[in-house]
TrEMBL record:
<dbReference type="Pfam" id="PF08241">
    <property type="entry name" value="Methyltransf_11"/>
</dbReference>
<dbReference type="InterPro" id="IPR029063">
    <property type="entry name" value="SAM-dependent_MTases_sf"/>
</dbReference>
<protein>
    <submittedName>
        <fullName>2-polyprenyl-3-methyl-5-hydroxy-6-metoxy-1,4-benzoquinol methylase</fullName>
    </submittedName>
</protein>
<keyword id="KW-0808">Transferase</keyword>
<keyword id="KW-0489">Methyltransferase</keyword>
<dbReference type="GO" id="GO:0008757">
    <property type="term" value="F:S-adenosylmethionine-dependent methyltransferase activity"/>
</dbReference>
<dbReference type="GO" id="GO:0032259">
    <property type="term" value="P:methylation"/>
</dbReference>
<dbReference type="InterPro" id="IPR013216">
    <property type="entry name" value="Methyltransf_11"/>
</dbReference>
<feature type="domain" description="Methyltransferase type 11">
    <location>
        <begin position="58"/>
        <end position="154"/>
    </location>
</feature>
């Protein structure tokens, strides 16, 4: 297996810088969150339903808002993230909000080295798998951490969306739909604050839907459904139009923006 350590170190450094900027951003709206507003979006709320009393592992949790939102709904949550700054803030929020979530700082692919318990639900969402060079170890880890009969759920930006380079504002089709070679990006700002002067240095990989589905099947999960949606809950691509339901669509919608997949460990 090739050594991806440097990629992860660069990404970790960038995400550590993003935490403070995102915590102040309108997008993450931490004040409203502290007052009780959920950070969860309609897709995942509908898919997972009543989580009260269930154990939930949240992969790549950033600074823990979604983890803590599930915790408020009665789930016993553990969040995992590569960024120690993210995990530090997540723990602070957990204490401040008097919740009982736990947070672990590690590379998501090494989750099983740090967490031995199994869960009713494994959850991950919005901009996660693109940071991983290979989905086979990711899927294997998910299967390891799920109880028999447990649910894995991912809601994620559609792979077609990552074929474009958005750095100059105008989407330009640049990358393969399912690209093995690493993609390096360097730009000012972040998706939550494009006016920020921080320089994001990021390594990423494109994974097509077949790779997502087949890695999970190979790991022993049964796919319950795969859905594709034309609307995004986040305004993270250029020139999106807000709908009456608070979602975002493209002016010329020629491909889906989101996919969601639910699977069960048999």
């Amino acid at each position: 297996m090739k050594d991806d350590t440097n990629y992860f170190e660069v990404n970790k450094s960038t995400w550590n810088k993003k935490v403070a900027i995102h915590a102040q951003s309108e997008m993450y709206n931490i004040d409203a969150f502290k007052k009780g507003k959920t950070s969860l979006m309609p897709y995942e709320l509908k898919a997972l339903g009543d989580v009260n009393g269930k154990s939930l592992l949240h992969l790549q949790c950033h600074f823990g808002q979604d983890t803590l939102s599930w915790s408020r709904m009665g789930a016993k949550c553990t969040g995992v993230d590569l960024s120690d700054e993210g995990v530090k803030l997540a723990k602070q929020l957990n204490t401040e909000l008097q919740l009982d979530a736990e947070f672990v700082c590690c590379n998501v692919l090494e989750t099983s080295k740090y967490i031995s318990e199994t869960f009713d639900i494994v959850f991950t969402s919005y901009g996660t798998i693109g940071w991983l060079p290979d989905l086979k170890p990711w899927a294997k880890m998910i299967a390891e951490r799920l109880n028999v009969g447990g649910t894995f759920y991912i809601v994620e930006f559609h792979p077609i969306a990552w074929m474009f380079d958005y750095v100059d504002g105008q989407p330009k089709m640049t990358y393969h739909y399912s690209q093995d070679e690493v993609i390096y990006d360097e730009y000012e700002g972040t998706y939550a604050n494009q006016d920020s002067k921080m320089v994001s240095k990021e390594y990423g990989w494109n994974h097509g839907l077949s790779e997502v589905v087949n890695s999970l099947i190979e790991a022993g999960l049964q796919i319950d459904y795969l859905n594709e949606h034309d609307e995004s809950p986040y305004d993270v691509f250029p020139d999106l139009i807000k709908t009456e339901f608070g979602m975002y669509k493209m002016k010329n919608q020629l491909f889906p923006m989101i996919f969601e997949l639910k699977a069960t460990k048999m």
